[in-house]
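Q: What would this chain look like folded?
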Amino acid sequence: MPARRKCLTIALFLRRNLRAASNLAFAASLFLGTLNLLPLNTRGQTTEAATTATSATEPPLPAGAISRPSRDVQVETNANPINENFRRFRYNVGVTVREVYDDNINISSTNRVSDFYTVIEPGIHLGFGDSAGGFNYLTFDYVASAYFFADHSERDTVEHLVHLAAQHDFGRLVLGLSQDVRILGGTSISSLSNTTGAQANIDVGGASRVNIYTTTLTGTYDLTGKLFLSGQASYDISDYETLISSRVASANLFINYVYSPKLVIGLGATGGVNSSDGPASDETFEQMNVRANYIVSGKISLSLSAGLEFRQFGGGGDSVSPVYEIAGTYRPFENMMITIAGSRRTNSSASLAGQDYSETTISLTFSQRLFSRVNLGLGIGYTNSEYLSATTGTSTARSDDYFYIEPSIDLDVTRYWSIGFYYLYRQDSSTLALFSFYDNQFGVRSSLTF
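A: My prediction, written as structure tokens:
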């Protein structure tokens, strides 16, 4: 969407009997900016241009995925060629309003409480630097979500999602730095690609205040026309107000080979330290991984990482478990896209002291545009969490199976205004009955974007 400078007064009011709501597609399409929510592009690197132009249905890249092949290799994609006549400074602004009926606002199995709530979501995207395919950029994304409950004002809250990223091409060397901040106060782990609550905080099993900070440094270095190095260092903080906070520092290094214009493979290792405020001592972990980016055709692309993780618990004991991340995109037609994303990783529990859990996720997203104005969407996801003791003397036989489905339909009334409806069903079946729940949400939405 080209940047335009306009001064507009936007008047949106809600009446109790006619609850307007808005299109989260704004936040999804304009503010895709985190390193964990970026598509494959010409070199496999996360460019700012790809961030602003890609739909939210694009799958995430595996953490530390292959960054890019050599400049001497042209990878076949659907990306548009670089246009020299572009604006180096670009911005988008908008506001989203949702009106939602939720029959279980606390995702509780024993005390189901229903309510209507209104969400007002203003957002902005600022970008400076290269256009499509470029490697030098500075970008800033921000979305705020203000929740107002009709009958339970104690649940009123404001959430903030921030992404700041910079990248520079020095020739053979490309360096990138990003900072993500999520200030959350509800029952979901919201992200810039989805604020409707598809990913419930199943570990906590209720509303909680948590601040999540992620700092990531990435780099690639061309060794030869076919061989290059890629690496990443990151620091993640999950800071809970009343529960158990945790921190993870990790780094990886991969050597990658451009086998063909469509296939890049890599081999590398990851190491890190996981610490928490609970009784468990610091944990260390190492991974051996094989990664690949495969562009099957102009319509199909796939990114895959798989390996083994060796984890040592400070209180004694160790574990070995598989890890993987996968992201794929299929565009059978110009206006249709199907994506798949999945991962397996180990996290510290915020609700159970001295516990970790291995989390396996898989999700499928479908989007279809009809008659140039109607947008159909469907999201389906599944998460399995298996808990294990991270210290001696504790044992929790907890296992969770979480599922969600989210169909939606949106209509572009004008170039700047859209309205729509979505339904979200989510359910967690836990061996600890306290954490089991099911939840239905019905939402209408309206969005203005410029």
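The chain is about 5% helix and 55% strand.
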